[in-house]
Amino acid sequence: MAIKVEGKKITLSRGDTLSVTFRISSGINLQPTDTVIFTIKDNPQSTTALLRKEYTGITGTDITVQATAEEMQMTAGNKVYDLLIQNGAQKITLMFPGEFVIAEVVHNE
């Protein structure tokens, strides 16, 4: 399956490498001092992140999120994700939680 993106819904086979690019369309241009945080959790109320990736030094409007196959060895099922920009005390949530589906696979690799 690799990766399938439908609006805010992302589907990825369990254990596949993740690489997805988000384009900010809200008029925000990233600055090198911004920290972009991509988080996957079981649900929005969970206090434990299944995956948390931080990126700095990005400019413009495109954010590419990448995770290794090992990082994506989560249990199959529906999860949620979001993107946050942080710069000092300022925090901007770029999107409300999107659906992130980990699809089960048959192979053991």
Topology:
Layout lengths: L2 E4 L2 E5 L4 E6 L11 E7 L7 E8 L5 E6 L9 E11 L2 E4 L4 E6 L6
Parallel strand pairs: 2-9
Antiparallel strand pairs: 1-2, 3-6, 4-5, 4-7, 7-8, 7-9
Compact description:
This protein is mostly beta strands and 109 residues long. It contains no helices and 9 strands.
Characterise the protein shown here.
This protein has 109 residues and is mainly β. The chain is 0% helix and 52% strand. It has no helices and nine strands. Strands 1, 2, 4, 5, 7, 8 and 9 form a seven-stranded mixed β-sheet that branches. The model has no long low-confidence stretch (mean pLDDT 92).
Features:
109 residues, mainly beta, 7-stranded mixed beta sheet, two-stranded antiparallel sheet
End-to-end separation in angstroms reads: 15 Å
Instruction: Estimate the global geometry from the Cα principal axes.
Output: globular
**Helix share bin:** under 10%
Please provide the ordered H/E string of secondary-structure elements: EEEEEEEEE
Total helical elements = 0
Number of strands: 9
Radius of gyration, CA atoms, in whole angstroms: 14 Å
- The residue ranges in which pLDDT falls below 50 over 5 or more consecutive positions are none
Characterize the biggest β-sheet: 7 strands, mixed
* Percentage of residues in DSSP E strands: over 45%
* Estimated structural class: mainly beta
Averaged pLDDT:
92
